[in-house]
Design a protein that fits this description.
By secondary structure, the protein is α+β, with helices and mostly antiparallel strands. It contains twelve helices and 18 strands.
Length: about 400
């Protein structure tokens, strides 16, 4: 007869367990942080060792001190799909025997997406528009992994991504499919401007952030120079850095443009403000507000900014946009330490809170009043009209036959 062994386990919560089966013993200790165990020849010895512990015999329990198993997430940057998944089988299908596969394991989904972002991917751009001019198969693709297969380790492979529309991809493909020679890169705003034929030189002369104005994919130097000279003329007339940033943001992301204005009527002691939202799809939204309590023009401009931030974040769910205004001091409010003395600090704190909590990126673009910016002219008109409307509503409320 084989000798019986008694496996005794102590847990951190002062509970204990005695089992005689080695498999039960392994289960009772694996994953229990801080537990201790011993093997005895007799049950009496095991009981004596567990003296002071609330123990049971030959019954498998899961004490409250069990350390939960960590989930493993697989982030795939190059494979049959680009994604973050905890499905190991899906991960293996995406990477096994895939030439040049690139992936990494993490203990949280957020860490996986952060790593993918460092490699140029996000949840939004797993799908995109990619074009291959020279590769195993040429054409336009919507998935990165399909595009990558065509050019990876293909001698002289030529492809590009990040196109805004299918038309852009088709134009690039047409230019490069017939002429697979040298590619030219143009930089209008960066560390160093000019036309380059080396992709490495091109990348070195771009700023590390998104504040660049570049174009690529030219098959002739003349085309690249033509594009560059046109942008240089625009930049030569602009000295204000905020204006340049706004232009770059529009070129890069086709961001919505928000026009704001405030109007103060000294005689009536009232002010009004308005917000005009012009989205990238061509739609236009109009908002106005009027008050009598606080009487100065700066207050009107600041409240117009608050109204714009609330509309863009709470209604339109937009975290980045171009803000066109005519009050040159307005961008200072984005500084958490700066306050306008003539404006209620509570309103200014709301603005700073939205910018910080919602991670809003606002590209301030200051223009002169009545300078021909159509959106700004409309904003000015509605700001003044809102003051008149306040008077009309008050007159109506005095009429007993009218209820507001």
């Amino acid at each position: 007869m084989p000798k019986i062994r008694y496996y005794a386990v102590r847990y951190l919560d002062k509970t204990g367990l005695i089992v005689t089966n080695v498999d039960d013993y392994k289960k009772s200790t694996k994953g229990f942080s801080g537990s201790s165990s011993r093997v005895f020849k007799s049950i009496e010895e095991a009981k004596e060792w567990l003296l002071g512990y609330d123990f049971i015999i030959k019954k498998e329990t899961v004490p409250l001190t069990k350390t939960p198993a960590k989930k493993t997430y697989y982030a795939i940057a190059v494979g049959r799909l680009v994604d973050v998944t905890k499905d190991k089988e899906l991960f293996l299908k995406a990477t096994k025997k895939y030439s040049g596969a690139k992936y990494k394991k993490f203990f949280s989904e957020e860490q996986g997406w952060e790593w993918l972002a460092q490699n140029g991917f996000s949840k939004e751009n797993k799908k995109g528009i990619y074009a291959v001019a020279k590769g195993r198969r040429t054409g336009i693709y919507r998935y990165f992994n399909t595009y990558h297969k065509q050019i990876h380790r293909f001698s002289g492979g030529l492809g590009a991504g990040g196109f805004q529309t299918m038309e852009d991809a088709e134009k690039w493909l047409k230019r490069n499919r017939n002429n697979q020679g040298k590619e030219y890169f143009a930089i209008a705003y960066g560390k160093r401007t000019g036309v380059f034929s080396s992709v490495d030189t091109f990348k070195k002369n771009c700023f590390s952030n998104n504040s660049v104005w570049t174009n690529r994919g030219y098959t002739t130097k003349r085309e690249a120079v033509k594009w560059l000279e046109a942008r240089r003329k625009v930049l030569a007339e602009i000295k204000d850095k905020n204006t340049i940033e706004a232009i770059l943001a529009y070129e890069r992301k086709k961001l919505p443009i928000v026009y704001i204005d405030g109007s103060y009527n000294d005689q009536k002691g009232k002010y009004g403000c308005s917000v005009i939202v012009s989205d990238s799809d061509g739609s236009v939204q109009t908002f106005t507000k009027s008050r009598k309590k606080n009487t100065n023009s700066t207050y009107a401009e600041v409240e117009a900014l608050l109204l714009a931030l609330q509309i863009m974040t709470l209604i339109n769910n937009q975290k980045e946009f171009i803000l066109v205004h005519d009050f040159d001091q307005l961008p200072r409010i984005a500084d958490k330490n700066y306050y306008f003395k003539s404006v209620d600090q509570l309103i200014q704190n709301k603005i700073k809170s939205i910018i910080t909590d919602e991670a809003v990126t606002t590209h301030f673009l200051c223009v002169k009043s009545h300078s021909g910016f159509f959106g700004n002219e409309i904003a000015d008109h509605y700001a003044k009209e809102s003051v008149k409307k306040l008077d009309e509503l008050k007159k109506m409320s005095k009429n007993k036959n009218v209820q507001l």
